């Protein structure tokens, strides 16, 4: 239910002193036109020979624009901090600087199903014209939820994907154990879905930039929040296991930018990730995409040209800063919002202790 803010604290409620000015919802949906939908699967199935079987997974859908513009190319750029992961459509984004349709996030073994279902959803829409849009390449990215979820049960189906797309809405967003982030872990705590945004001015123009993350990475001892060595203070994780994991970041902005500029924006997500303590990991898939909702205007008639006002490279620094700040805060929001979970094979992931975390930063705004 993305329109309703869930009853949980966010990182700022704990007194964590993030820099920058957030938007009204402090979410990627603060960027005009951007909408987000979730489908969360949470079920306990009959145990098999090796123990309890749990479904803890889902789908997150990010729509960059209204339905009437779904089949118009969206300017974008991508970056890979570490490439052990999947983001479909990446080659065409590198080639053309655009993608068409939504962006979806899910678990590693459901990429194919989500991609297939997204194509079904798109081609059934009244705006779709087969002659004009003979092929489509949706963007689907993943992180691995095999600790909490029966990932080899392939529980996500086309109906679930369509529900996430149909439910996409603006406003405040649920975080933590929702959508594609349902079964994820972060710094050996429960992780998941998080979001944040920044308002900024460049010259006499005002812009918004927002981030949405699927956070599934990091070792406990690495965790750092606003310079505080939280992981070291917390002590070892009870069952650390393999905490390498991955991170997907989606950046949206209404600033008018070219694909190369958006690629440079996407690259800065790694700095926001690094602010939380991780140096990265050999087996992680840390993939980032940035897109602009700004659109060019066709000249009309027989003139094939289009016009668009663009920010010069010299003006892009505030967007770099906003990207780093939003990515950092969205990761911490994912952890703060997440709830303790018992999942596949009875494994347990504790949520970070919000009262304790708040005590590390002085005055709290918790009720």
The H-and-E topology, N to C, reads as: EEEHEEHEHEEEEHEHHEEEHEEH
CATH topology: L-amino peptidase D-ALA esterase/amidase
CATH superfamily heading: L-amino peptidase D-ALA esterase/amidase
Number of strands: 16
* Sheet with the most strands, sense and barrel status: 6 strands, mixed
- Structural class per helix/strand content? alpha+beta
Kindly provide the radius of gyration, computed on alpha-carbon positions and rounded to a whole number of angstroms.
20 Å
Separation of termini?
A: 24 Å
Name the overall outline: globular
Q: What's the CATH C level? A: Alpha Beta
Q: What's the multimeric state?
A: single chain
Unreliable sequence segments: 1-7
Strand content: 25-35%
Helicity, in percent?
A: 10-25%
Number of helices: 8
Q: What is the number of domains? A: 1
Please explain how this structure is put together.
By secondary structure, this protein is an alpha+beta fold. The protein has a single domain (11-295, 310-340), classed as L-amino peptidase D-ALA esterase/amidase (4-Layer Sandwich). The protein has 8 helices and 16 strands. The strands form 5 sheets. Strands 4-3-12-11-10-9 form a 6-stranded mixed sheet. Strand 9 (192-202) and strand 10 form a beta hairpin. The longest helix is centred in the last third of the chain and has 21 residues, at 317-337. Residues 1-7 have low confidence and may be disordered.
In short:
The protein is built from eight helices and 16 strands. The protein is α+β, with helices and mostly antiparallel strands and 367 residues long. It is globular.
């Amino acid at each position: 239910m993305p329109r309703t803010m869930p009853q949980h604290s966010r990182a700022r409620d704990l007194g964590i002193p993030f820099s920058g000015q957030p938007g009204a919802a402090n979410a990627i949906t603060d960027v005009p036109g951007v909408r987000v939908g979730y489908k969360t699967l949470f079920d306990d199935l009959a145990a098999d020979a090796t123990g309890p079987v749990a479904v803890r997974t889902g789908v997150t859908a990010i729509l960059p624009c209204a339905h009437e513009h779904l089949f118009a190319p969206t300017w974008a750029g991508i970056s890979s901090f570490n490439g052990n992961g999947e983001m479909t459509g990446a080659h065409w984004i590198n080639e053309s600087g655009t993608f068409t349709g939504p962006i979806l996030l899910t678990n590693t073994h459901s990429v194919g199903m989500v991609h297939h279902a997204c194509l079904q959803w798109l081609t059934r829409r009244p705006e779709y014209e087969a002659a004009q849009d003979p092929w489509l390449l949706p963007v689907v990215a993943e992180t691995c939820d095999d600790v909490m979820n029966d990932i080899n049960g392939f529980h996500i189906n086309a109906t679930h994907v369509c529900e996430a797309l149909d439910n996409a809405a603006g406003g405040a967003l649920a975080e933590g154990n929702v959508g594609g982030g349902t079964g994820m872990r972060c710094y050996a705590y429960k992780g998941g879905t998080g979001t944040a945004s920044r308002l900024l001015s460049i010259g006499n123009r005002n812009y918004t930039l927002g981030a949405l993350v699927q956070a599934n990475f990091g070792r406990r001892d690495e965790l750092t929040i606003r310079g505080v060595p939280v992981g070291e203070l917390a002590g070892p994780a009870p069952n650390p296991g393999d905490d390498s994991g991955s991170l997907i970041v989606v950046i949206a902005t209404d600033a008018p930018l070219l694909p190369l500029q958006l690629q440079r924006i996407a690259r800065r997500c790694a700095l926001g990730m690094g602010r939380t303590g991780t140096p990265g990991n050999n087996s992680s898939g840390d993939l980032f995409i940035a897109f602009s909702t700004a659109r060019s205007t066709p000249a009309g008639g027989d003139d094939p040209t289009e016009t668009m006002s663009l920010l010069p490279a010299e003006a892009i620094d505030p967007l770099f800063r906003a990207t780093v700040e939003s990515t950092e805060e969205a990761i911490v929001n994912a952890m703060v919002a997440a709830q303790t979970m018992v999942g596949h094979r009875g494994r347990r992931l504790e949520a970070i202790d919000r009262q304790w975390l708040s005590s590390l930063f002085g005055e709290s705004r918790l009720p």
